[in-house]
Design brief:
By secondary structure, the protein is mainly alpha-helical. The longest helix has about 30 residues.
């Protein structure tokens, strides 16, 4: 389960950056002035950095609390089964 969760978070990070690059490329071509383009690109990059750092924090949390999180999950699934 840990590998699945970390794989999902890493996939989400890659997906977020792929979408962000696509959007920023389109925004830069639509911007009327250079300052508008630069502000939009800067804001997009900052947003991407914050999203990435939050997801890296999730990965660190999963790594630090791996035993506690997944042992509880395994106990709950064995009770239901």
């Amino acid at each position: 389960m840990y590998r699945q969760d970390t794989g999902l978070v890493i996939t989400f990070i890659l997906f977020v950056w792929a979408v962000l690059v696509f959007v920023l490329m389109n925004v830069s071509s639509l911007a009327l002035t250079e300052i508008t383009r630069d502000v939009a690109l800067g804001a997009g990059i900052v947003a991407g950095i914050f999203v990435t750092s939050a997801l890296v924090a999730v990965l660190v949390h999963l790594k630090k609390n791996c035993h506690a999180l997944y042992s509880e999950e395994l106990r709950n699934t064995s009770i239901k089964a």
